[in-house]
Amino acid sequence: MASFCFSMTSNLMICFSLLVLVSIGSANANLSKDYYYSSCPKLFETVKCEVQSAISKETRMGASLLRLFFHDCFVNGCDGSILLDDTSSFTGEKTANPNKNSARGFEVIDKIKSAVEKVCPGAVSCADILTITARDSVEILGGPTWDVKLGRRDARTASKSAANNDIPAPTSSLNQLISRFNALGLSTKDLVALSGGHTIGQARCTTFRAHIYNDSNIDTSFARTRQSGCPKTSGSGDNNLAPLDLATPTSFDNHYFKNLVDSKGLLHSDQQLFNGGSTDSIVHEYSLYPSSFSSDFVTAMIKMGDISPLTGSNGEIRKQCRSVN
Ligand code: HEM
Ligand SMILES: *[C@@H]1O[C@H](CO)[C@@H](O)[C@H](O)[C@H]1NC(C)=O
Ligand SMILES: *[C@@H]1O[C@H](CO)[C@@H](O)[C@H](O)[C@H]1NC(C)=O
């Protein structure tokens, strides 16, 4: 299927923006929604068109792009560090455990960056492109939309060890999840709302094997279903995929939370959010009220996007997202 990214979306865009003009308080005075108003007026339509085209080719890509933003922001802030390739003299974050054989969508980011460079050369950071891309992915898959704050600059460094330490593992307990998020200024409610990102996308057998074979807080028939695609012994089946949301894996909705209430979370860490602890009530609320989830998700995404941005003369505007200038 051919796809063309021109400004044919402008009528649509006007409708959307009328619906969603929410005023957003700015926790970080250096980020603003109008940051590229004059330096790159076509930015939003350019990014959206490329994201739409990537998701039309492969629905899962929307999930992969959302996750890239999360993995970028959790490691020394939203600074595009995850996008840097390893070289003989530089070790980046792509080979850290949470990303290795798992983080995907880098080619799509490259494509978006070159489309943006064509309309406004040298103006827009890769960190901001990731931010817009995550927002557009959620919207295109049926979730809420919102105004993103922009003005981040790109890191000249990356940290494999910070990626290993700061991105939570699927084996995490509730307390570990809460403290990881709290360390970055995100509340327990933000943790639960952001975990709703698992309403889309896939996980590899190796990340959920222990939960489906060894945990007792899992629906028996669901565990059996997942076991059929994920052999007990590690090895050849490690990369077999299963949807994080068994009900509607390509729609951004509140089904993830209904699954948790039914003990059908795929990851150990997912089910920790509804396991008799302090977050049960939030999960229960989101499972009943999709609009409550949507609005808390938006709030939390904006907060996550505020984590330690590089501004002013810090960092740079990368020419290519995979390497420093
Ligand atoms: C709360 C702690 C979290 C843990 C422990 C966690 C862990 C994981 C794991 C293990 C996978 C599967 C990776 C693989 O098998 O390759 C995954 C996938 C995913 N995660 Fe998370 N995650 C967390 C939070 C988040 C957040 C906050 C978001 C976004 C808001 C997010 C979005 C996603 C998405 C969309 C996927 C599917 C990606 C794809 O299909 O390519 N996760 N996560
Ligand atoms: C389940 O737990 C046992 C005992 O701790 C361990 O030996 C085994 O490797 C675990 N199995 C899986 C699939 O994680
Ligand atoms: C904005 O950026 C400048 C220059 O980098 C910095 O000194 C200042 O603290 C930043 N302000 C906020 C609110 O982050």
UniProtKB/TrEMBL annotation:
Primary localisation category: secreted
Gene: 11429686
Reaction it catalyzes: 2 a phenolic donor + H2O2 = 2 a phenolic radical donor + 2 H2O
Top-rank taxon: Eukaryota
GO biological process per UniProt: hydrogen peroxide catabolic process; lignin biosynthetic process; response to oxidative stress
Cross-referenced InterPro entries: Haem_peroxidase, Haem_peroxidase_sf, Peroxidase_pln, Peroxidases_AS, Peroxidases_heam-ligand_BS, Secretory_peroxidase
Signal peptide: 1-29
Protein name: Peroxidase
Site (Transition state stabilizer): 67
Binding site for substrate: 168
Residues annotated for Ca(2+) 1 binding in this entry: 72, 75, 77, 79, 81, 93
Cofactor annotation: Ca(2+); heme b
Compartments in which it is found: Secreted
Positions annotated to bind Ca(2+) 2: 199, 245, 248, 253
Enzyme class name: oxidoreductase
Cofactor note: Binds 2 calcium ions per subunit. Binds 1 heme b (iron(II)-protoporphyrin IX) group per subunit.
Plant heme peroxidase family profile domain location: 30-325
A GO molecular-function descriptor: lactoperoxidase activity
Active site: residue positions: 71 (proton acceptor)
Pfam assignment, any one: peroxidase
Function: Removal of H(2)O(2), oxidation of toxic reductants, biosynthesis and degradation of lignin, suberization, auxin catabolism, response to environmental stresses such as wounding, pathogen attack and oxidative stress. These functions might be dependent on each isozyme/isoform in each plant tissue.
